[in-house]
Amino acid sequence: MKVLIPPVYKRLEDEKDPFSVEPLGRKTFAENLTALFKKTDDGLVLSINAGWGDGKTSFVKLWQLNLKNDKQFIPIYYPESRIKRTLFGIHSQVLQEQPVSGH
Questions:
Q1: In whole angstroms, how far apart are CA 59 and each of 87, 101, 102?
Q2: Burial of 1 (0-12, 13-18, 19+ CB in 10 A)
Q3: pLDDT by residue (tens digit) across 54-73?
Q4: Burial of 21 (0-12, 13-18, 19+ CB in 10 A)
Q5: What is the pTM of this model?
Q6: 82-102 pLDDT, tens per residue?
Q7: What residues contact residue 23 under an 8 Å CB cut-off, 6+ apart?
Q8: Secondary structure of the chain in the HEC alphabet?
């Protein structure tokens, strides 16, 4: 018999406190990252690097909900499988909007 347990972010009990279901105590880490983002005047990009099954997606999804509840941020999440294509698209758009020097 196979038992599948859904990821933590799919077992939310309270969307206002998404970390209430997170058993590894990562709420403090999320609060520290949020404080760091609040202290900067510029945007920040964060990359989380860990092994398969270490909880990267669960952490990011819970933190994303937490940031949405804060209403000071617009969190954007790109899974690794789409990051190269997405960054290429953003880079192309920036290049199109920059004026050509000498004109």
A1: 22, 43, 47
A2: exposed
A3: 888 888 888 988 888 888 87
A4: middle
A5: 0.66
A6: 666 666 666 666 666 656 555
A7: 8
A8: CCCCCCCHHHCCCCCCCHHHHCCCCCHHHHHHHHHHHHCCCCCCCCCCCCCCCCCHHHHHHHHHHHHHHHCCCCCCCCCHHHHHHHHHHHHHHHHHHCCCCCC
